Amino acid sequence: MVMDAEAIKKRIESTFNEVSTRYDRNHFFVLSAQQMVERGTEGLEPSHLLCVLDVSTGTGNVAIALAEKLPNAHIEGVDLSLGMLTQAQDNVAKKGLTQITFRQCDAESLPYENATFDLITCGYALFFYPNMETTYQAMCQKVKPGGRLIFSSFTQEAFTPYAELCLQRLEKEYGIEPPRAMMARLKTVQQMEALATLSQPKKVDIKHGQIRYQVSLLEWWDLLNNAGYKGLIDQLSPEQFVQFKKDHLAEIEAITTNGRFELNADTWFALVQF
């Protein structure tokens, strides 16, 4: 079944509302946020009164890392999912940060004037957008002359072979078809560069970030159920869910050592300067 753009966004919003309170169990989001901020703020003075926007902020990991790196900056975080924003507010409150504000909105229609921000960040989100290229170009228009934008996406090797085994089982045994066209976006340097250069920037710098750590079978299952894969798994009936979990984890256990393996969440970071 082919869904239109609005239906896709509704499904994405619903999925991330569902996982919002568990999303931060996936440690790679914090690790990647730190790398994104280090790369995106290189050369910027922490003392400057910068205006920063974090698009698809999720639970606020990038926004929080930005606030800690740039204490004088005003930071706005936007997201389609109200559930994620509620969790982000809680995370910011726990940190005692006061320079971050959040609002719910669609990345396709950001409610800001052009040339508003010194820096825009967008972690692991562009590939979700139904109209990725036009949304990206509109986002670039919000950057001030001399400003910058940084976005990230997983490499082709990320989560292999475990995620593909999950997707294959869902498709072959339950007829749940993964959105492979979307999932194939922004996996290579060439794809990242092709998107980045649409806005005719002065410079594009794409770098690889290694993000790897050991996980257990249950931690892997948590990852599947607390991120974008949840939208596919939720299409199973309760009985199918139980059987799928049993079969998938048995398949993963058979190719691991003592039920543990190294999670590869390697990431491309594209720094675009205007």
Report on the architecture of this protein.
By secondary structure, the protein is of the alpha/beta class. It has one domain: 3-Layer(aba) Sandwich (Rossmann fold). It has 11 helices and 9 strands. A 7-stranded mixed β-sheet has the order 3-2-1-4-5-9-6, sandwiched between helices. The chain has a two-stranded antiparallel ribbon with strand order 7-8. Strand 1, helix 3 and strand 2 form a beta-alpha-beta unit. Helix 2 packs across helix 3 and helix 6 runs antiparallel to helix 11. The longest helix is centred in the C-terminal third of the chain and has 16 residues. The chain is globular, with a radius of gyration of 19 Å. The termini are far apart. The mean pLDDT is about 95.
Shape: globular
Helix percentage: 40-55%
Strand content: 15-25%
Q: What class do helices, strands and sheet pairing give? A: alpha/beta
Mean pLDDT: 93
* Side-by-side strand order of the widest sheet: 3-2-1-4-5-9-6
- Major sheet: size, sense and barrel closure? 7 strands, mixed
Characteristic terms for this protein:
two-stranded antiparallel ribbon; 274 residues; Rossmann fold; 11 helices; 21% strand; 7-stranded mixed beta sheet; single chain; alpha/beta
How do the helices and strands line up, and which of them pair or pack?
Layout: H1 5-19, H2 28-40, E1 51-55, H3 61-69, E2 74-79, H4 82-95, E3 100-104, E4 117-122, H5 132-140, E5 143-154, H6 162-174, H7 180-183, H8 189-196, E6 203-209, E7 212-216, H9 217-225, H10 230-233, H11 238-253, E8 260-264, E9 267-273
Parallel strand pairs: 1-2, 1-4, 2-3, 4-5
Antiparallel strand pairs: 5-9, 6-9, 7-8
Helix pairs in contact: 2-3, 6-11
